[in-house]
Write a structure and sequence with these properties.
Layout: E1 3-5, H1 8-23, H2 30-40, H3 46-58, E2 65-70, H4 74-77, E3 106-110, H5 112-119
Parallel strand pairs: 1-2, 2-3
């Protein structure tokens, strides 16, 4: 499966674009949000845009693309639930950032530094 390992700079750019889109809020129509995503996508680094465009045009193989190194705030995310009966400890669960929704079936893999911080 194709994989794009983001640099810290690329991950930061994705975060900035996603936060800008999230700040717009749900008051906009779907068409307005899709237009904003299409326009703001041009702010992404060239290598990321090239990988996402190539994926969109080819969908190889099987329509999957792994984006590794996305900035994940472990404190905001909270602990992984150990079962489905645990009470929710997160006050506001939110949808994935728009950058994860730009193309179908994008999967996020935390950066190695996120994994090691979580393990300690």
């Amino acid at each position: 499966m194709p994989r794009l390992d983001l640099t810290a700079q690329e991950g930061g750019a994705l975060r900035d674009v996603a936060e800008g889109l999230a700040d717009a809020g749900p008051s906009h129509t779907l068409d307005q949000r899709l237009e904003a995503i299409a326009v703001r996508a041009h702010e992404l680094p060239t290598r990321v845009r090239a990988a996402l465009t190539g994926f969109r045009l080819t969908g190889r193989p099987y329509g999957g693309l792994i984006l590794s190194g996305l900035p994940i705030d472990q404190d905001l995310l909270g602990p992984t639930p150990t079962d489905d009966t645990s009470p929710r400890t997160r006050p506001n669960c939110v949808a994935p950032p728009p950058c994860c929704c730009w193309s179908a079936r994008c999967w996020a893999v935390p950066s190695p530094s996120s994994r090691s911080a979580r393990a300690s």
